[in-house]
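re the bet — no i am not wrong, look at it urself. input seq straight from the record:
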Amino acid sequence: MFAVCADPKAIEGLTWLSCYLTSGKHLDFYWSFVTVLLLLAVTAPAALAMGFGGAMAARSRILPLSLLGKGYAALVRGVPDIVFFLFFVIALDQGLEYLKSLAVCADHAWPWQGLEFRVCQEAKVPLGASSAFWHQAYGFALAVFTFALVFGAFAANVLYGAMNAVPKAQLETAEAYGMSHGQVFRRVLMPQMWVYALPGLSNLWMILIKATPLLFLLGVKDIVYWARELGGSKTQAYEYPHPDWRLWYFLGLLVFYLCFTKVSEIVLARLSARLSRGQATAAGEAMRRAGA
């Protein structure tokens, strides 16, 4: 990155370290932090939307829809995350390629040949001739969908419990005043359920932060991948001009995650205090007495 780095004979001491930390691979390492933050920024609202849909389905008076919502939450929560990530991503990828093969492949042959899954080159997602960017974007999209699906099931369970925690007397009073079922849901149930849901959603947010290293298992080059790649003394192709530094790289990741979770705790605590103000909960009552 620096001009002095172009002359290997002039690289020594702190100059060598500055050139090493600004190499192309280290720039990829720094950008991988953006990848993790982008994953959280996209996955959190997507998982919340899936969870909200699951909770609404579970509360539905239509039996098949109710069973679907409850089954979604129970099924996904009952499978270990790492097993679900490794299995579901492969199944989803192969499912997309199979559906595409029905439209673009001439022979429409069954893709399974023994234990191998094969489709024509035109059915590959993305195409083999596509740039590396599209391959990375496709892998990231699969990761986001998988994360959202898994954590959406946990969010559905939290939101379902929060909806049931709102006093039924308030809902019945609103109906007695002539509100429709939709109006009761939007004006009474929705504003109050977040107070009960926030503690559970806060825990899910923390778990989601800690689950981001699973990107490494999904083939996305995240911070864990680059910490292991750059911290090691050698790779399969070449050796680094330093000993094993993985301890220091992973200590850097430790500091990053601890700082990020601390900032999250502060933000969530302020959000909880704001939502609890004026509510008939233990936190709201404590705030009322403190104000009095």
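see?? Residues 218 and 240 are 26 Å apart (CA to CA). told u. also The radius of gyration is 25 Å. so pay up
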